[in-house]
Design a protein that fits this description.
The strands form two sheets. Strands 3-2-1-4-5 form a five-stranded parallel beta sheet, with helices on both faces. The protein has a five-stranded parallel beta sheet with strand order 7-8-6-9-10, sandwiched between helices. The model has no long low-confidence stretch (mean pLDDT about 95). Helices cover about 45% and strands about 15% of the residues. It is α/β, with parallel strands linked by helices and about 350 residues long. It folds into two domains: about 160 residues, Rossmann fold (3-Layer(aba) Sandwich), CATH 3.40.50.620; about 160 residues, P-loop containing nucleotide triphosphate hydrolases (Rossmann fold, 3-Layer(aba) Sandwich), CATH 3.40.50. Helix 11 runs antiparallel to helix 12.
């Protein structure tokens, strides 16, 4: 006969969550099933690549909105300690001993957060000793609940995902996996093969691509007005964000808000301030298509000389940016090979 599991008032889950993966989520679910409330703490010193505090706050908020959660970094610590009128105790490094880590955690819980958990839920060997340290500091029992320490239920680690970010698609929620997708914007003048290249790259890289919304709206309405342009850029970004939830490691974007910003000036000589802000949207890589394709007039384009003007403008914009960019020319297959080879050599973020 199975004994009834203990139930706790407050359960504690601590981790770097760099990144937050399905194993972490299962751990929190186990704590939730046995506790009246759950406190989630995340900190890392130093911060780990691709998993900064802002991202971790977003991940935890998306996945655990019902739980109290804190992502702790230097700024957070300074602000909260100042508000409470207590001296800051420096966060230990990731390589510090378990004793140092646990002493700091006890200080954080007691003096900074004012929380006394009844149990700590974890999958790590340090769990029992951490529970003992907290019990001594709080002067009351704190139980360690070990959850699948052998990682048989979900055999994944955050280290493995950071080493091979493609694993994020399999082992993290869509909200987390999308943070590991790198956006590639294709720019260029009219009739320079952007759309054809976008589709070909997506097929080659086995990923998603986002068509140009401005062209879609133009064809639907038979043109666009000045007031349409901000909406076009906003919708382009919205569709990119949605596609990131289902994309492979690279998301191919046919144009960007920079294109819409350019058309605002080419067509009307000015732009909405919000559109100008959106034109600075950051991409992980930009590909500029050379105007060496035969110019095709489909009834929506201006004269061939205009695309040369556009190309020169894009060059000037890219030369002033810090984003990695590449120019491509030749056939579609030649362009695809050049881009794929370039992306394969790009260092991890």
């Amino acid at each position: 006969m199975r004994h009834q599991e203990s139930r706790y008032r407050l359960g504690l889950v601590v981790g770097k969550f760099a990144p937050l993966h399905l194993g972490h989520e299962w751990l929190v679910s186990q704590a939730k099933s046995r506790c009246d409330s759950v406190l989630i703490l995340s900190y890392s010193n130093p911060e780990l690549p691709m998993c900064g505090p802002a991202l971790r706050r977003r991940w935890l908020a998306a996945r655990f909105p019902e739980h109290e959660r804190h992502v702790i970094d230097g700024k957070w610590l300074q602000r909260v300690c100042r508000n409470r009128g207590i001296a800051v105790k420096a966060m230990p490094t990731n390589s510090a001993s378990d004793a140092v880590q646990q002493e700091w955690l006890a200080w954080l819980l007691m003096l900074v957060l004012g929380k006394e958990p009844d149990a700590i839920f974890c999958s790590e060997e340090y769990g029992p000793s951490c529970a003992n340290t907290l019990a001594q500091v709080f002067g009351k029992p704190v139980e360690c609940v070990l959850v699948d320490p052998a990682r048989r239920h979900l055999p994944i680690s955050a280290t493995a995902i950071r080493t091979a970010p493609a694993l994020a698609r399999q082992w993290t929620s869509p909200e987390v996996a999308s943070s590991f997708v790198r956006r590639v914007a294709l720019l260029g003048g009219e009739s320079t093969g952007k759309t054809t290249l976008a589709a070909a790259l997506a097929q080659r890289l086995e990923t998603q691509w986002v068509p140009e919304y401005g062209r879609e709206l133009w064809e639907l309405q038979g043109g666009v007005s000045e007031t349409d342009l901000l909406f076009i850029a906003q919708e382009q970004v919205r569709r990119e964000n949605l596609a990131q939830l289902q994309s492979g490691p690279w998301l191919i974007c046919d144009t960007s808000p920079l294109t819409t910003f350019g058309y605002s000036h080419w067509m009307f000589g000015r732009s909405d301030p919000e559109l100008q802000k959106l034109s600075s949207r950051i991409y992980d890589a930009v590909v500029l298509c050379q105007p060496d394709f035969p110019f095709v007039q489909d009834g929506t384009r201006r004269e061939e000389g205009f695309r040369l003007e556009q190309h020169a403008w894009y060059l000037s914009q890219l030369q002033d940016s810090k984003v990695p960019w590449l120019t491509v020319h030749g056939t579609v297959s030649e362009r695809v090979e050049k881009v794929v080879n370039w992306l394969s050599k790009m260092p991890a973020r």
